[in-house]
Design brief:
The protein is of the alpha/beta class and 325 residues long. It has two domains: 161 residues, HUPs (Rossmann fold), CATH 3.40.50; 112 residues, no CATH class. The chain is built from nine helices and nine strands. A five-stranded mixed sheet has the order 5-6-8-7-9. It has a two-stranded parallel ribbon with strand order 1-2. Helix 4 packs across helix 6 and helix 5 crosses helix 6. The radius of gyration is 31 Å and the shape is elongated. Keywords: Aminoacyl-tRNA synthetase, ATP-binding, Ligase, Nucleotide-binding, Protein biosynthesis. Pfam families: tRNA-synt_1 (PF00133).
């Protein structure tokens, strides 16, 4: 008892280390598995953190929640092996090696040799193995009987044979010449909102907006809906425009070029505005393509410029636009 209670010098972290060491010496976890081996099995495979860095609070929190489930099942008469694998695949490891060796293209990898490249990848995984294992042992989650590397390729082949994998469009890296997981595709994504006409926030990389006109079929005035986007490359795959049934929409005419647009009344002030430019034929300009839209000044001044540019021809509820082509 004196070894456990150290009075004023008692340290919970040090005591946990002693307990973990003792569990290892008496093979506590292995003994529990031996005693329960004839009981119904509760299958559990944990997905570990990436092998490119040590676990952080988020990993430990999720692991603790998982551990509650496995301990509960173990205490209720199940054999729970708790197999722990490694994410030793995919771009995170390769990215670290590419950065370390200055690799830019697939040809650089082939020149180095696939075998040598794989060894470099394996080296950073094994470098982190023992430190990470210690963290998982000591974070109060559990003690793990075995560490296994998942054979993801074999599992994929089995799933394909059973027709349990469906086809879909995947993100693809032209630099790495490989499909990307959703996590990998989003890992370097920067959320930006820097429109041309007014600035919402300052971010690292500019991401300009564009407004696109969609002509309305058989409209006697040749009107067009106006849509706003920062991802114009997605437009070819769009099937429809959306309107809000409860919003009020307006049909407006550009006083300088005669173009007619349909836009939500609350967004009218965001349309580009332009004053006649010297040298233009009858002052006609393509307002949505203009690079001279006013981008600065007070909102009041901006609204005045919009009023000077556009004439409201009609107002109607969004519900009346449903089905328009």
């Amino acid at each position: 008892m004196d070894d456990v209670c150290e009075g004023k010098d008692f340290s919970f972290p040090k005591q946990e280390e002693k307990v973990l060491q003792w569990w290892g010496e008496i093979k506590a976890f292995e003994t529990q598995l031996e005693r329960t081996k004839l009981l119904p099995e509760y299958i559990f495979y944990d997905g570990p953190p990436f092998a490119t860095g040590l676990p952080h609070y988020g990993h430990i929190l999720a692991g603790t929640i998982k551990d509650v489930v496995t301990r509960y099942q173990s205490m209720h008469g199940h054999h729970v092996t708790r197999r722990f694998g490694w994410d030793c695949h995919g771009l995170p490891v390769e990215y670290e090696i590419d950065k370390k060796l200055g690799i830019k293209t697939r040809e650089d990898v082939l020149k180095m040799g696939i075998g040598n490249y794989n060894e470099e990848c394996r080296s950073i995984v094994t470098r982190l193995f023992n430190p990470e294992k210690g963290i998982v042992y000591g974070d109060g989650v559990t003690t793990w009987r075995e560490w296994v590397v998942g054979r993801s390729r074999t599992l994929r082949c089995i799933a394909l044979e059973k027709e349990e994998i469906a086809g879909k469009v995947m993100p693809y890296s032209t630099g790495c010449k490989t499909p990307l997981s959703n996590f990998e595709a989003n890992s370097n994504y920067k959320f930006l909102c820097i429109p041309i006409f007014f600035t919402i926030s300052e971010q690292e990389v500019p991401d300009p907006e564009i407004m696109v006109a969609f002509p309305i079929v058989d409209d006697p005035q040749g009107a067009a809906f106006v849509a706003w986007t920062t991802t114009p490359w997605t437009l070819p795959s769009n099937l429809a425009l959306c309107v809000n049934a409860n919003f009020v929409y307006v049909k407006v005419r550009n006083k300088f070029n005669g173009n007619i647009y349909v836009v939500a009344e609350s967004r009218l002030s965001e349309l580009p505005f332009e004053k006649p430019k010297k040298g233009t034929l009858n002052g006609r300009v393509n307002d949505l393509d203009s690079s001279n839209s006013k981008t600065k000044g007070s909102s009041g001044g901006k609204s005045k410029n919009v009023i000077d540019t556009y004439e409201v021809l009609d107002k109607f509820p969004g519900a009346s636009l449903v089905g328009t082509k």
